[in-house]
Recover the amino acids of this structure.
């Protein structure tokens, strides 16, 4: 039986290419709502406060433990903004059409990662050298890390390099994915946007060879981004958390960090989609299908959060060695026990029971609510991890080089400068993304046009369906 | 009141089958009294058929509840009945019990789901009524469940739509 | 990928029921040959029960050897089915269709085989009953739910029951087809087994929903099973190299690596034996190889983490173990073979499209992976045990006895025999999925090019 004989065209209610171009690249998008402008000014003010916080943090610096909240904030931003571009890559590799309208929002996470690369610098100054204890314990004594006998500042160098690489690869990918849209703005926009778009579009005129190049570059940078993201999470979580704590030996932790990054990335894209519908006039492009599909993946990563957490917890709990017990106490049942339970509910229990219902996933409001809860929960989770790690400065240096955390540190509370930092730095990241969206449309025009080309609503005998082409 | 007859019209193309369904609708046969039988799943609504409702999603929750209850009884019961401390663990070691509870919860959910699938598919029902083996060869069967007085009308409608063969059971 | 064939339902029935409605010439001799090996294996088990575990190479302090390695290996293979079936079903990957049934079947039979090993390893298998069921009310002795060895039967029991039911539910429409094409006792059997399947919209809708719902339920079970197997080792702090938090996901990814490879092996064999060239096509091997590249790279990441954290503690015994695993004879040879076969040879080859589309190459590379993955489990289990531990008064290495090799051979013959027996009575490639694929795929013309397209139902 030949299916094509049973198919007829159906009414297509999606915006036409002309309408899409006008909305996303032409005059339709030049007007910025006064509300958004005000929001950006508020973010700018908060960013200034964040920078003030950093300056005062340097001035009021009583040691490593004072930088825990800064590390947690940077860790949280890496988790979100580093993970977001994966949403643009992974479904695209699986030829998923639903991701097209949100691919741009996802890829713009890389802009904030570039800001993050700068915010890492103060933290590098505060990260102890591998030979931290040499003065007291002798030249050959080094703290425990994955760097073994590497030069003293190997973690500083490699973390800086890897995060910078992540930012560069991410930015390049976001840029390549935006080139056809910039060309459209060059042809249909006006004013400063048109001038900038003309420069950045680099003579893109949609020749087959140019599209071929574009596809290839997106593929290569996508794979490279994924590899770099894994590497950055691996290094950052080990050097800025695990190896700061004597006795914490947790081989699954880098993967836990990656999973939370995917979870946060999805949450960020869901919120971005919601916000762009609410304030960016993209209701015709982003719909329930995107929320539903993103929501499914967010539910999956939520369950994986528990899996990765439990994988390490059960091993420590059964091990019952001195270091196993100390690790559980530091991160779960000790100084941060209330924080832990809050995290447990915000990152796992609540999103799980919110998102398990198909009616909630398949709605415009459900996934954004779960996303807010998850992002807040993960912020507390980063505090639990990084503040605890940075406060675990060993009192007994002999113990520090072995596998036991001596005295359990007390709960560290944020001071006013920490609060400045926690509010200001994420605001700076968000502001950087919003600034870029002044030029680049938040919904990828060419992806929408391609989607319109290869898929169409049809009638199959008496029923309705969607025909979706699967290009190689 | 149960219908006593089932009349089957056999068609060699999906289009003819859909026409027969249209014919039955316009002849005033109530939705739910006629059905399409195919050897292949078609997109929903392809024959203009009545879209069946089901309550399958309730089954796994019920099964999971039974599973977790059994698991708690097993783990707590055995440990309390034979309270020997091993490995320095508490007698009611929640983190270990959780693993067995998880497995039995999922087992309960899966078993209940499969029961639900069979129940909601209205199976087992070994009496096939009017049926033809060619349906599993690509032919489309349109089956009408009706009382004696409607049999002839049903046959007429099925015939008009171009049935290759009409069977009654 | 323009390899789609347009086939009518008569041809699909005829070709895919080739092994069910008629018996291929090679079938009986092959099954009998396998039966001989299987009976030989059962005899070896009998000898072992009679003489005791002394007939194996197991001795202080290496109490876990080939049996437990092979147990983990077959549990790993069993991860093929749900990985392929559930994940690909949930992501609506069109190329899954010819693969699902065989993969699910592999899950069921390899789990069944895996179960044998801890049972026979107990020496007195009938006593396992006390170990996992609250049975001995007379003496008031009950199972210890805190022991990971009690978690295993629950995990594997759940997985086995779930996969068997999953397999059966997806068989219903095909049993209906067999009912319509048989007579006599076979007809009666398929009539009862198909539960009266007719193929009305309600039944088809439930079949579709069941596929998705059961996949969503089976996936968490699938992840838990190998995690629980890994905790048999990881929660033991006293054996070097075992007490690692990454073990759970590491084992799961390793299982997927070996399981999907086993599916590749099996698909190649199915294509050769039954001549299903129209159904199992190079594009399917290509897609599986791409999936395997991703899985293998993830697995390499976990392996790297496992190794680096092995030495991370800087503790002398842990370092010594890693040195032994990697650099001391004969472990170094095994380690090299393991790494070459599990990753270094197959994965770079899969990067070439010509290899991915070459069925013989895919067959051999997938075999290599499973040699490597068996060795991986052996290298995890045995070296750690053979080093001196606290509370161990002697230490020695481990020599696998001929009897154990015999039982390893038995396990392969047993799985193959079960698969062949199944293939006689039930179709190995799902007919209804193949037919569904014919309905739901078409071409869409864009300009001068025809692009493969799928039909998606609207919610």
């Amino acid at each position: 039986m030949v299916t094509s004989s049973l198919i007829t065209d159906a009414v297509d209610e999606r915006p036409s290419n002309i309408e899409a171009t006008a909305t996303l690249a032409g005059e339709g998008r030049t007007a910025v709502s006064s509300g958004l402008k005000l929001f950006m000014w508020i973010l700018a003010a908060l960013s200034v406060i964040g920078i003030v916080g950093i300056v005062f943090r340097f001035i009021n610096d009583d040691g490593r433990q004072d930088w825990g909240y800064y590390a947690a904030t940077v860790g949280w931003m890496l988790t979100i903004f580093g993970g977001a571009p994966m949403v643009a890559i992974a479904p695209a590799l699986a030829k998923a059409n639903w991701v097209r309208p949100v691919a741009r929002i996802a890829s713009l996470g890389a802009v904030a990662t570039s800001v993050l690369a700068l915010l890492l610098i103060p933290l590098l100054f505060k990260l102890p050298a591998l030979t931290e204890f040499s003065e007291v314990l002798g030249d050959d004594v080094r703290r425990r890390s994955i760097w073994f006998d590497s030069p003293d500042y190997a973690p500083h160098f490699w973390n800086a390099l890897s995060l910078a690489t992540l930012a560069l690869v991410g930015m390049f990918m976001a840029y390549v994915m935006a080139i056809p849209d910039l060309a459209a703005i060059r042809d249909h926009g006006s004013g400063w946007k048109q001038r900038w778009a003309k420069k950045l579009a680099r003579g893109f005129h949609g020749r087959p060879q140019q599209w071929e190049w574009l596809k290839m570059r997106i593929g290569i940078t996508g794979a490279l981004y994924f590899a770099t993201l894994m590497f950055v999470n691996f290094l950052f979580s080990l050097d800025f958390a695990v190896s700061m704590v004597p006795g914490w030996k947790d081989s699954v932790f880098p993967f836990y960090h990656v999973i939370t990054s995917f979870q946060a990335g999805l949450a960020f894209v869901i919120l971005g989609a919601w916000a762009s519908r609410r304030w960016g006039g993209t209701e015709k492009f982003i719909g329930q299908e995107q929320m539903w599909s993103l929501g499914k993946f967010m539910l999956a990563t939520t369950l994986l959060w528990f899996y990765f957490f439990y994988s390490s917890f059960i091993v420590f709990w059964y091990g019952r060695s001195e270091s196993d017990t100390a690790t559980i106490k530091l991160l779960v049942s000790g100084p941060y026990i209330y924080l832990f339970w809050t995290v447990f509910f915000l990152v796992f229990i609540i999103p799980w029971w919110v998102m398990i219902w198909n009616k909630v996933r398949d709605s415009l409001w459900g996934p954004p609510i779960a996303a807010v809860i998850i992002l807040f929960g993960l912020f507390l989770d980063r505090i639990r991890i990084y503040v605890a790690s940075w406060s675990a400065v060993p009192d007994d240096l002999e113990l520090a080089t072995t596998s036991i955390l001596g005295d359990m540190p007390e709960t560290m509370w944020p001071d006013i400068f920490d609060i400045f930092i926690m509010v200001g730095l994420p605001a700076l990241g968000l502001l950087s993304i919003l600034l870029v969206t002044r030029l680049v449309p938040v919904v990828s025009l060419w992806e929408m046009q391609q989607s319109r080309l290869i898929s169409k609503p049809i009638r199959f005998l008496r029923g309705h369906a969607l025909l979706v082409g699967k290009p190689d | 009141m149960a219908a006593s007859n089932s009349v089957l019209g056999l068609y060699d193309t999906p289009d003819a089958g859909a026409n027969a369904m249209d014919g039955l609708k316009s002849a005033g046969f109530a939705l739910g009294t006629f059905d399409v039988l195919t050897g292949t799943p078609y997109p929903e609504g392809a024959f203009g058929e009545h879209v069946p409702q089901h309550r399958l999603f309730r089954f796994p929750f019920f099964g999971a509840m039974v599973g977790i209850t059994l698991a708690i009884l097993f783990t707590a019961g055995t440990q309390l009945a034979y309270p020997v401390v091993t490995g320095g663990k508490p007698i009611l070691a929640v983190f270990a019990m959780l693993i067995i509870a998880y497995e039995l919860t999922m087992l309960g959910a899966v078993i209940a789901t499969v029961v639900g699938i069979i129940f909601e598919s209205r199976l087992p029902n070994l009496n096939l009524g009017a049926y033809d083996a060619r349906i599993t060869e690509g032919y489309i069967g349109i089956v009408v469940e009706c009382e004696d007085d409607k049999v002839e009308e049903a046959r007429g409608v099925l015939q008009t739509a171009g049935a290759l063969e009409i069977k009654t059971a | 990928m323009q390899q789609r064939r347009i086939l009518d339902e008569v041809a699909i029935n005829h070709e895919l029921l080739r092994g069910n409605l008629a018996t291929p010439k090679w079938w009986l001799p092959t099954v009998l040959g396998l039966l001989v090996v299987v009976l030989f294996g059962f005899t070896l088990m009998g000898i072992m029960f009679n003489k005791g575990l002394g007939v194996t190479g197991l001795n202080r302090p290496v109490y876990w050897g080939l049996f437990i390695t092979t147990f983990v290996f077959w549990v790993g293979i069993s991860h093929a089915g749900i990985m392929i079936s559930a994940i690909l079903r949930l992501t609506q990957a069109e190329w899954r269709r010819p693969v699902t049934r065989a993969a699910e079947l592999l899950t069921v039979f390899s789990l069944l085989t895996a179960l044998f090993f801890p049972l026979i390893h107990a020496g007195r298998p009938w006593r396992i009953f006390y170990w996992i069921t609250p049975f001995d009310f007379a003496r008031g002795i009950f199972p210890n739910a805190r022991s990971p060895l009690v978690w295993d039967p629950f995990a594997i029991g759940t997985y086995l029951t779930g996969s068997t039911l999953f397999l059966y539910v997806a068989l219903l429409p095909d049993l209906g087809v067999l009912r319509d094409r048989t007579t006599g006792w076979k007809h009666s059997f398929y009539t009862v087994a198909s539960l009266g399947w007719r193929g009305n919209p309600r039944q088809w809708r439930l079949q579709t929903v069941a596929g998705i719902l059961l996949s969503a339920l089976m996936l968490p079970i699938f992840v838990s099973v190998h995690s629980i197997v890994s905790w048999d080792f990881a929660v033991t702090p006293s054996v070097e190299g075992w007490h690692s938090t990454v073990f759970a996901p590491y084992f799961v990814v390793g299982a997927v690596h070996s399981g999907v490879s086993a599916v590749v092996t099996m698909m190649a064999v199915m294509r050769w034996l039954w001549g299903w060239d129209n159904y199992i096509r190079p594009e399917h091997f290509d897609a599986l190889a791409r999936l395997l590249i991703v899985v293998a790279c993830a697995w390499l990441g976990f392996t790297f983490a496992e190794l680096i954290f092995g030495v991370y503690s800087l503790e002398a015994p842990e370092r010594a173990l890693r040195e032994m695993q990697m650099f001391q004879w004969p472990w170094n040879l095994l380690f090299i073979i393991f790494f070459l076969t599990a990753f270094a040879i197959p994965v770079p080859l899969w990067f070439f499209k010509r290899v991915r589309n070459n069925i013989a190459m895919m067959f051999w590379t997938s075999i290599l992976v499973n040699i490597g993955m068996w060795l991986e489990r052996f290298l995890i289990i045995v070296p750690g045990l053979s080093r001196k531990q606290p509370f161990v008064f002697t230490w020695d290495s481990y020599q696998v006895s001929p009897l154990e090799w015999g039982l390893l051979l038995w396990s392969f013959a047993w799985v193959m025999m079960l698969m062949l027996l199944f293939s006689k009575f039930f179709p190995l490639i799902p007919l209804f999925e193949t037919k569904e694929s014919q309905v739901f795929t078409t071409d869409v013309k864009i300009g001068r090019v025809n692009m493969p397209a799928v039909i998606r139902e609207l919610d």
Remarks:
- Chain A has 18 helices and three strands.
- The longest helix of chain A spans residues 154-188.
- Chain A touches chain B through 15 residues (CB under 8 Å).
